[in-house]
Amino acid sequence: SPNSGSTLGGTSVTITGTTFTGATSVTFGGAAATGVAVVNATTITATVPAGAAGAASVIVTTPSGSNAANTLYTYIPGPTVTSVSPNSGPTAGGTSVTITGTTFTGATGVTFGGAAATGVAVVNATTITATTPAGAAGAASVIVTTPVGSNPANTLYTYSPLPTVTSVSPDSGSPAGGTVVTITGTTFTGATSVTFGGVAASFTVVNATTITATVPAGAAGAASVVVTTPVGSNAANALYTYIPGPTVTSVSPNS
After folding, report:
1. Residue 180's CB: how many other CB atoms inside 10 A?
2. pTM over 0.90
3. Parallel, antiparallel, or unpaired for β 43-47 and 12-16?
4. Taking a C-beta distance cutoff of 8 angstroms, is the pair 37, 44 a contact?
5. 222-255 tens-digit pLDDT
6. Per residue in 150-163, pLDDT tens?
7. Using CA atoms, how far apart are residues 164 and 250, in angstroms rounded to an integer?
């Protein structure tokens, strides 16, 4: 008791039986237990060694022999995580993901890169849904913890930084639009839209740090240039200015 535990071992158990006095060893599935203590002739405490998933025979050996084989202890495999969908999201977190694997029943926690996920729901033994926490850019290990242990470390989820826009050249033009500009920043790969003051521009992603775009028409004044990618958008800014052309209101003398 308890009569089951992780394949990693480490479970503290109490073994009950008869004629335990002078016991010299205890094995689980042939592997020696540790921390064996003969409490009395009917009780032994021990720490279970690692073992293969499934039933294991618990054998107590004394100077006069060993008990018969049995299936009194069961090794339960720890969880495994095989995939996360979607497998990437912004460093700010907040992405709803589905985690697929095995032995999720009774899961007590899910972490991404060591940070606890929120909204964890064990759908069934092979599926968990959760919301990612904030994390540092790069690969993150997705760990599911159950009463019998946790899965091995992995790199199944990637935190992708949001795009940034650092400059626009030229940084001003007519309210009529039509100015061709070069936008410089970071993480532009896969950009899905570029807007000037909230108005969509036509654009081409040159590389991860450069976009060329044709400025749409806009109101006179500063405009925020926003690049959107699958993981989000950059912060608002005032990097482009719509400058109205000259107007002539009167001529004096007018003839």
Report:
1. 11
2. no
3. antiparallel
4. yes
5. 999 999 998 889 999 999 999 998 989 999 999 9
6. 999 999 999 989 99
7. 45
